[in-house]
Amino acid sequence: MDHTMEQVQRLIAEKKYEQAAATLDKAISEHPDDPAGYTNFGNLLIAMGESSRSLAFFEKALSINPAYASAVFGYGNALFELGQHKEALTRFSDAQKFGLDNGDLFYMIGRSALELGHSGQALAAFQRAVELNTKDVEARFQYALVLARLGDLDTAEKQFKTVIDADPSHADSFYNLGVIATFRDNKDKAHGFFEKALELNPRHMLAANGLSTLNKGK
Q1: Which helix (H) or strand (E) holds 112?
Q2: What total of structural domains would you count in the chain?
Q3: Which of 91, 115, 141 is where one domain is finished?
Q4: DSSP code of 100?
Q5: Which of 20, 84, 143, 147 is in the most buried spot, having the most CB atoms within 10 Å?
Q6: CA distances from 195 to 70, 131, 209 (A)
Q7: Where are the TPR repeats (predicted)?
């Protein structure tokens, strides 16, 4: 069953949804008392943009094993996608209590906390996510954003630069480095960062506005 679930997760990542569904149908029929099949079918539905339908599969998994952390986490993801951020955060906390401890969990705790306006909790969660998965560019970017929002510009700057080292095409990080440079009244540096953001993403309106403001000040 473990090998089958690994195969399913790979198919979902590759967006081969029909193959994943067929594999899961077979797994569920052969192992109706294993929560893994229902959990992964729920994850598949979220990937397909059908989060509301996924809830029934997570509920089925949890009816078999109420402490099945992967199903609790999946349930939280579905609730987050449905805009129920407070309920999602509760599910993520439960998943942690049931033994889940990975970067994805803390990333989603951070996302939920941000939606609820809990910047301190979000900062701690994103920091933990980055510690657990140093290659998670999006978690590091969110961490940098919260650092900047809370006024720790030096650490935020380092984190944005680390994001760019991992992904040189990350326009939003260049834009935010431009904002930090503007705040420090280093207009030449800011100009360069905004231009780079626009080069990478010509539709980056915030970078265009930043550049326009700098040019007006000349």
Answers
A1: helix 103-115
A2: 2
A3: 91
A4: -
A5: 143
A6: 43, 31, 11
A7: 35-68, 103-136, 137-170, 171-204
pLDDT of residue 4: 76
Cα 41 from Cα 195, distance rounded (Å): 44
Do the domain assignments include residue 6?
yes
Instruction: Look at residue 86 and tell me if it is in a domain.
Output: yes
Q: What is the 3-state secondary structure (H, E, C) of 13-78?
A: HCCCHHHHHHHHHHHHHHCCCCHHHHHHHHHHHHHCCCHHHHHHHHHHHHHHCCCCHHHHHHHHHH
In this structure, what token pair is assigned to residue 5?
């679930």
Residue that is last in its domain, among 76, 91, 106: 91
Per-residue pLDDT of 79-126, as tens digits, reads 999 999 999 999 999 999 999 999 999 999 999 999 999 999 999 999
Q: Return d(Cα 130, Cα 105) in angstroms, integer.
A: 11
Tell me if 175 is assigned to some domain: yes
Helix axes 137-149, 119-132, angle to 10 degrees: 150
**What is the chain's mean pLDDT, rounded?**
95
Interatomic CA distance for residues 180 and 198, integer angstroms: 17
Give domain status of residue 192, yes or no.
Answer: yes
Q: Which two tokens stand for residue 206?
A: 């915030």
Q: pLDDT per residue over 120-130, tens digit each?
A: 999 999 999 99
Quote the domain boundaries for residue 193: 169-218
